[in-house]
Design goal:
Blueprint: E1 3-8, H1 16-32, E2 35-40, H2 46-58, H3 62-82, H4 87-113, H5 120-128, H6 130-145, E3 150-153, H7 172-182, E4 191-195, E5 198-200, E6 206-208, H8 213-224, E7 229-234, E8 255-257, H9 258-266, H10 277-283, E9 287-291, E10 300-303, E11 315-326, H11 333-347, E12 352-358, E13 363-368, H12 377-391, E14 399-409, H13 419-426, E15 434-437, E16 443-448, H14 453-467
Parallel strand pairs: 1-2, 1-7, 2-4, 3-4, 7-9, 8-10
Antiparallel strand pairs: 5-6, 9-10, 11-13, 11-14, 12-13, 14-16, 15-16
Helix pairs in contact: 2-3, 2-4, 2-5, 3-4, 4-5, 4-6, 8-10, 9-10, 11-12
Length: 468
Amino acid sequence: MRTLVMKFGGTTVGNTTALTQVVSIVLQENERWDRLIIVVSALEGVTDALIEAARLAQLSNRRGYRRIAATIRIRHLALVEKLPLGTSERNALQADIDQMLFDMLEVCQTMADATSEDLIPTKTDTIIGVGERLSARIVAALLRQNNLRGVAVDAIELIITDTTYGHAKPDMQLTQARINEHLEPMLGRIIPVVTGFIAGTPNGTPTTLGRGGSDYTASILGVCVNATETWMWTTVDGLMSTDPQLIENARVIPELSYDEVAELAYFGAKILHSRMIGPLKKKQIPLRVKNVFKPQLPGTLIHLGTTIPQGELRAVTAIQGISLSASYSGTLAEISSLVNAILHKTIGSDADVMISAQSSSRTFLTFVIPTASGPDAVHNSLIALNSSLAEDPNHTGWQVDQVSVITVIGTDIDTAPGTLARIFAAANDVRLFALSQGPSRCSISLVVQPEDTDYLLKQVHDVIINSG
């Protein structure tokens, strides 16, 4: 049985034009595949608004979270009103939207009235998962209107995780069992429209998979149903050689290996969630990234990569990070543990040590801040780290700074003659704090000052273009 999992991001379900494309794509692929599974994100910007609603509820700002709920309601109802739906389908959908937002407001009220912080993580995940539940019902209704048996399915009952709220880790054994029981029997008869991003504990308490986690949902489902392929639909033509919003001559990369795309996602490519690649690689399920408005284009194919030229420079990314330096030489366990605890509390993400370097008298560490942590993550992390280190008499000598990490991607990048020389030549006018080759042998990273980011990104991208 040929099975296709398709994930549609927030920009592909946010207006009538995009949703028309989504339906057209599903209608076409339904004719070509034995079984389809659809995964959807919340409408663009809705998750950010829900995160803010949860924060305001925590502060007992009732007017604030009610205003956000009202704005989300207006936006979704306005979208539904413009869609080509029958009267009964539209009325049922409007009622669902109202009920879900009413339930969300009750959760916000519970948080606002809470006398303990114990409930905050669980209630926050309940609130911020509402966006996916809303969009899944809209897409399923549109499919039914086009004579497809679309059914919205909440992943809370399918993807079972631990209790790391905000960044939960799936239990693949329990998840496989739930999918076998609840999802597999639908396939071939029904097109399930599954909520991305959200999951649940074994007892049904909602969790989330981290920002951008809808990609991860598609990956997990693909593995558990033994999908033939998994497709990610976006509004760009595929994965690019660099960020096209920063560099005009960025180009589509026709194919990438799993290792290359994992490095791309980890080091700042915003299209894919970094945790989604591992499960697909393990099962060798091909992944395609395609443009919802240009479905005829091939996009980017991610696969085992045996036909990909070795040593070829493929892409360059930029991601924000934080550096710590001190006149210190010794074990890094204590400072790394402290930074991990601070970042986990501040941005809900563990500290990933990207580079550590020591001499006889000095230590330099770089921690990557995931793009999925939000636009204020670096600023908030800097404040929290400076404050905590200043109050700790054992760590007052550490200096905390914002840095950028420029990463060049290519399979077996260390085998290409002159690769390092060309990268160093591109960085000739830039102060380098640190340099590292990734253990996967398909990335080289340079740590620089934030003000040098755009310049070095362009310089290195020119090397890629001219060597391709």
